[in-house]
Design brief:
Blueprint lengths: L6 H8 L2 H5 L16 E4 L11 E4 L4 E4 L5 E2 L1 H9 L3 H12 L8 H27 L6 H9 L4 H6 L3 E3 L5 H8 L4 H6 L3 E2 L8 E2 L4 E7 L5 E8 L8 E3 L15 H9 L5 E2 L3 H9 L5 E2 L8 H10 L4 E4 L3 H14 L10 E4 L6 H8 L1 H9 L2 E2 H10 L7 H15 L5 H19 L1 H12 L28 H16 L8 H5 L6 H12 L4 H12 L13 H29 L5 H17 L14 H13 L9
Parallel strand pairs: 11-12, 11-13, 13-14
Antiparallel strand pairs: 1-2, 2-3, 3-4, 5-8, 6-7, 8-9, 9-10, 14-15
Protein name: DNA primase
Cofactor: Zn(2+)
Enzyme class: transferase
Length: 630
Amino acid sequence: MSLPPGFLDELRARVPISRVIGRRVVWDRHKSNQAKGDWWAPCPFHQEKTASFHCDDQKGFYYCFGCQAKGDVIGFLRELDGMDFMGAVKAVAAEAGMSVPEPDPRARAAQDRNAQLAEVTDAANRWFRLQLQSAGAAAARDYLTRRGLDQAALDRFEIGFAPDGRQGLRAALRDKGLADALIAESGMTIAPDDGGQPFDRFRGRIMFPIRDSRERVIGFGGRAMDPNARAKYLNSPETPLFDKGRNLYNVGPARAAVAKGASLLVAEGYMDVIALDRAGFGGAVAPLGTAITEEQLRLMWRIAPEPVVMLDGDAAGQRAAMRLIDLALPMTGPGQALRFAVLPPGLDPDDLVRDRGQAAMAEVIAGARPLVDLLWQRETEGKVFDSPERKAALDSALRAAIGRIPDESTRAHYAEAIRDKRRELFGQAGRASNRESWQAQPRKGGRRAPEASATAPARASVFVGRDAGDTLLEGAALLLCATHPALVAEVETRLERLAPQDAGRAALVHDLLAGTDSAAGRGAIEALRADPHLGLIPAEGEQAGAILLNVLDRLESARAARLELPRAEAEISGETDEGLTWRMSQLARAREAANHPRLSDTRDLGEDREALSLQLNEWVAGQIWRKPGR
């Protein structure tokens, strides 16, 4: 039945989800916050004593941190009471005092048609199962036996057989009174272009029925017995019932297994799912003959927050994983992650379990790697980074990929993970030695810079625009980092945000972060040292970090004002949202940091180049990094 737009939203808004769920659970009064609509209880979907089941009235959703059951009030009634969709809608509508709209005649007709198509596919499934017991299916039974499938497995997955004839299934369905048009629409027969008699689509194949989450048979997958068949596997065509991009093989049983604690495993095909299930991994599903789609990813995440994608160890498996990266990144975030388990080369799940046992499969699953590892592998494997340009190309590709992640916190964690991998790739030793080369060349009479003090003094304050003042501060920050390499680790994330417009300075930023030593970077250092406004930047000093933090604070305060205020002003004219609130808080935080002096003996730096230069020189002349008595 089709409902008017907005009806379900209004229904959910009128009935707090805790009112319906509260009749089935006992709320934990100590952990719950009734005033905020935040409720906790032992989960009704699995046996437990602790309150891991969370219900949020404001969002209208429930989630169990134990079994990962989740959904809205309608989903709760469907999952717990076994109601169909309209039954759950009517129950909640009665609670809200709302009447359910009369059905749309067109929607009712489509629903009736789908019920008729499901009748055809269900009858076909029963016929295929009978044929597996016939004399003509001996080879199919032998194959299944060799694959280790006993009768229990055949019954569990309802495996059947389509004889190698053109009219067997069609005749059987017609004998049940089903019309040719309906049989063809269900995908069970093919009508020839020349107008001849329709013939069976599946012939000489082992048949795997595909059920949806409502347990209806919506289509089939067929494995050819003839090794010379044009297609080893053949799936039902798209029908009103069957959309291969929106369904998964074994989705219903897998959902039930995940609710009991199993991992959601995404295998390549039907036999892989069956092998995993028989080995004790009941949460296995598979796409239906195509690469994983966006809709299938969303379906997986409705079942579990972190599905494990099982990959063959061959090149095809690796290519499939790399394609999935681009699909998943714009959708990933809290509660929507992926992990990848790579099988040994040449082995599918059935081979691995049969040859090495269940423990070997469990070890492969436990060793599943996060998506960020696959992203790094894709961008670095087989490549050589022996020049600044190649390293810059790597940085650009990774930034572009990470930039597609919508959730800000997830993006930040990806960036942190990538920074760690860059250090590992380019080597801590190389980076340290490069910094030492800068440290080993202090100005005449200077000393090597000691490690930055763990206790940083207060910061100076100033507000500047994107002008000469910004350029000077940027140069001061870079020269301080080049002269005091030990400080770089403390301000890495802040250096990454500098984005100098000058090519030489940009190369220097890359050198500082990657531990490299480029000609362009060295040229930038010399240019900065030759700048009369920066000529007294100290070659030593225990509190050089204090100056650096002052400079970076001022740059970030200016950037916050320059970038966030115009965006906030543009949004004030529309609806206030969380993004606006966040941006205003970020601006306030930046200005607050800049307005609390870190150096008690310094004055405001002013806004022009000369004033900034005088302040930098005053710090140096006063030797503020020296302790009293030196």
